[in-house]
Amino acid sequence: MPAPPRLDVDRLIDDPSIGIVVCCGSGGVGKTTTAAALALRAAEAGRKVVVLTIDPARRLAQSLGLTQLDNTPRPVHAIDTSKGGSLDAMMLDMKRTFDEVVIAHSEPEKAEQILANPFYQAVSSSFAGTQEYMAMEKLGQLKASAENWDLIVVDTPPSRSALDFLDAPNRLGSFLDGRFIRLLTAPAKASGRAGLKVFGMGVQLVSSTMTKILGGQMLSDVQTFVNALDTMFGGFRERADETYRLLSEDGTAFLVVAAPERDALREASFFVDRLEADGMPLAGLVVNRITRVAASGLTPARAQAVAESLEDGAGPRSATNAAGVLRLHASLVRTAERQRELADGFSLGHPGIPVVHVPALGRDVHDLEGLREVGDALSGS
């Protein structure tokens, strides 16, 4: 099969028209490290970069030399700024972001009421989908601060949830327009309307039933929360829709990151199909941690045969050690061949998708030098 087009990472991050790079992929494939390496390389090439991680792991902070990451972008020091670039890093705090939205888009008295509401406190910390909603909100906020950064690199959550933020506007709309929410808000909206008297009696019956199930105080907290957010959520939905449109524009580039393993590449195929179906601008695939063998001309079969010959000769210990090295070489070559076949299988199913192979470093990346090495590998240098 013809070789897939090569993903030119340097050309991507040097392009001033690219303002957002989104790294997505399954867990354990080096996605966080890839995002950090891209951000560092872009900053040292002269871009003003902020990298946002939504992954709860702390690896990004450690590799950037920061003691911690939080909801506020923090400057990364010890980078090469000779070309005028800069690098900030942050980790999404979904509750704090939710609080910021409430404070920014509500009257002070209403904001205080919402923040003190027990149901809000539960929703803002653990409600399914809140992380994705707040990721959209935070990305929109960062993009609005264009005077601070000209490139945003987003490290998404692992597994298929990495694309859940694409569904955030629709899921939020479904939540707000859902039958349960309409029932909760109906008593307040129907109050004083004679024409809705019959409907109101039905709602009272439902409310009575829910009171028995949830408890009166909890139901009251939920109703207060929903009514207080009734107007604010409309604005949030509009902003989420705007961020979704931003992600689909040419100024955004999605990078799918995968390991050279069957399951990871299957997930990568899912990501690519979903992005293409949604019309999202896909830049290409990063196949991370590819095994490279220096003496590639020595086949596994030949290495195995020589190892067996050395062992049969029952020579000195040096011969036994050499046989062990040959067997290790044979195993590495087989691994590299299997990984290459898997990567080729992906390209066969997705012809035309640019690909870059990043070799395994053989050690954990925990500092800026390691990130620079990953960046060099991403660029092919």
Brief description of this entry?
The chain is of the alpha/beta class. Helices cover 56% and strands 12% of the residues.
Structure characterization notes:
This is ATPase. Residues 20-290 form the ArsA/GET3 Anion-transporting ATPase-like domain. It comes from Intrasporangium oryzae NRRL B-24470. GO terms for molecular function: ATP binding; ATP hydrolysis activity. With 381 residues, this protein is of the alpha/beta class. The chain folds into 2 domains: 9-168 and 244-295 and 342-379, P-loop containing nucleotide triphosphate hydrolases (Rossmann fold); 300-334, no CATH class. Helices cover 56% and strands 12% of the residues. The chain is built from 15 helices and 8 strands. The protein has an 8-stranded mixed β-sheet, with helices on both faces. It starts with 8 loop residues before the first helix and ends with a helix.
Features:
single chain; 381 residues; alpha/beta; Rossmann fold; 2 domains; 15 helices; 8 strands; elongated
- Could you say how many structural domains there are in total? 2
Q: What is the name of the CATH class of the largest domain? A: Alpha Beta
CATH topology of the largest domain: Rossmann fold
- Helix-strand sequence: HEHEHEEHHHHEHHHHEHEHHEH
- Tell me the β content: 5-15%
Unreliable segments of 5+ consecutive residues: 188-207, 209-215
CATH architecture of the largest domain: 3-Layer(aba) Sandwich
Radius of gyration (Å): 26 Å
In DSSP terms, counting alpha (H) and pi (I) runs of 4 or more, how many helices? 15
Instruction: Give the CA-based shape.
Output: elongated
Main sheet specs: 8 strands, mixed
Query: SS-based structural class?
Result: alpha/beta
Give, in spatial order, the strands making up the sheet with the most strands. Answer: 3-4-2-5-1-6-7-8
Distance between the ends: 25 Å
CATH superfamily of the largest domain: P-loop containing nucleotide triphosphate hydrolases
The strand count comes to 8
Helix content range: 55-70%
How would you state the average pLDDT, rounded?
Answer: 78
